[in-house]
Write a structure and sequence with these properties.
Length: about 170
C-alpha cells in the first residue's frame, strides 16, 4: 500500500505545498516520496534528503494530466499513477504538487515484517527508504534516517506511522 496520509502533528492541520516539474521518464504515484535532483522532482531514494510526498499531478499550466502519460494532448483524468515523457523537463513540464511538511504523518509500507529489527515498530526510531514508496525495515536506528517513526499503524499493523525527518526544505 506504500505511503498514505495519516494526519498531522501541526495544530493548524494544513500541509505545506510546493510545485516542481517532474524528472524525465519516471512513473510517479500519488503519495510517492520525492527528492530534488538537478532542479526537478525525482523519485525518492535511500539516503537522499526528502523533498516531500506527491499530492497531485498537473500540466505546466495547472490542468489535469492525461491517463496516457502524454500531457497536453488529452486532458482526461488519471488514476494515481503517471509516466512522464522522456523530454518532460523541457517540453511538457508536468508538475507535481508536493507536501513538504515535516508535520504530516504517513502510514508507510515496510519491506519486511515490522519489528524484526529492534525499533522498526517503536516511536523514536528512524528508517530510510528502500525506494519511493517503501521503508527499509532493517535501517531502524536511534541516530539518523529519512523518516522518524511513531510506532505501528493501529489500523494496519504491517505498517509504521512516520513523518519526514531528513528534509531538503527544512533540514534535519
Amino acid at each position: 500500500m506504500a505511503f498514505s496520509n495519516n494526519g498531522t502533528m501541526a495544530p493548524w492541520g494544513a500541509p505545506v505545498k510546493v510545485f516542481r516539474t517532474l524528472a524525465n521518464s519516471i512513473t510517479v504515484t500519488i503519495n510517492d516520496s520525492v527528492k530534488t535532483a538537478s532542479g526537478f522532482a525525482a523519485l525518492g531514494t535511500t539516503g537522499a534528503l526528502v523533498l516531500g510526498h506527491v499530492q497531485g499531478i498537473g500540466t505546466a499550466k495547472g490542468m489535469p494530466v492525461s491517463s496516457t502519460g502524454v500531457a497536453g494532448a488529452d486532458f482526461g483524468s488519471f488514476i494515481n499513477t503517471f509516466l512522464t515523457a522522456s523530454d518532460n523537463q523541457t517540453v511538457a513540464q508536468v508538475k507535481a504538487e508536493i507536501d513538504v511538511s515535516k508535520f504530516t504523518l504517513y502510514s508507510a509500507e515496510v519491506d519486511a515484517t515490522i519489528g524484526t529489527t529492534t525499533g522498526s515498530n517503536l516511536a523514536g526510531y528512524t528508517q530510510d527508504l528502500v525506494d519511493e514508496d517503501t521503508l527499509d525495515e532493517s535501517t531502524a536506528a536511534t541516530t539518523t534516517g529519512q523518516y522518524m517513526g511513531h510506532g505501528v499503524d493501529p489500523y494496519n499493523t504491517a505498517q509504521a506511522i512516520v513523518n519526514i525527518f531528513e528534509s531538503q526544505v527544512f533540514g534535519v
